[in-house]
Design goal:
With about 130 residues, the protein is mostly beta strands. The protein has one helix at about 125-130, and strands at about 10, 15-20, 20-30, 35-40, 45-50, 50-55, 55-70, 75-80, 85, 90-95, 100-110, 115-120. The chain contains one helix and twelve strands; from the N terminus they run E-E-E-E-E-E-E-E-E-E-E-E-H. The termini are far apart. The structure holds manganese (II) ion.
């Protein structure tokens, strides 16, 4: 057993996020574990860029109100208690609603080989639904 002391909160990088978002790395498995868990806090209006996860991702909203969209789909509202599952390779983004903070757990796995996620363009205000 290992108790890992709390790590510093990290500001989400501006090339992959619009607005203010901060994350805490909660779990980063050592092989053969490939688990990844981040707690992500989005300020109102903040969202990540279009991206896809090699092995998919599960999000669980722990507080607030947010938005999520899969490529080609509608912008959907998500609320505390909701769980969102994105399949492997599905392009999507997630973030806070315009007038609410949103916090979610982001859970995914690293693939056996290759990058965990692929990142694309930032989500425009038009796509976000301002
Ligand atoms: Mn994602």
């Amino acid at each position: 057993m290992e108790i890992i002391p709390k790590r510093s909160t990290v500001k989400a990088p501006t090339d992959r996020f619009t607005g203010d978002a901060w994350f805490d790395v909660l779990a980063e498995g050592v092989p053969p574990s490939r688990i990844r868990v981040n707690l992500v806090r989005f300020a109102p209006g903040a969202r990540n860029a279009w991206h896809a996860h090699a092995v998919g991702q599960t999000l669980h909203v722990t507080a607030g109100v947010g938005r999520v969209q899969a490529r080609g789909g509608d912008v959907l509202e998500i609320r505390a208690g909701d769980t969102i599952v994105t399949p492997p390779g599905e392009w999507h983004w997630h973030g806070a609603a315009p007038d609410h903070f949103m916090t979610h757990l982001a859970m995914w796995e690293a693939p056996a080989e290759g990058p965990e996620s692929e990142w694309g363009d930032l989500v425009t205000d038009e796509e976000y639904g301002r």
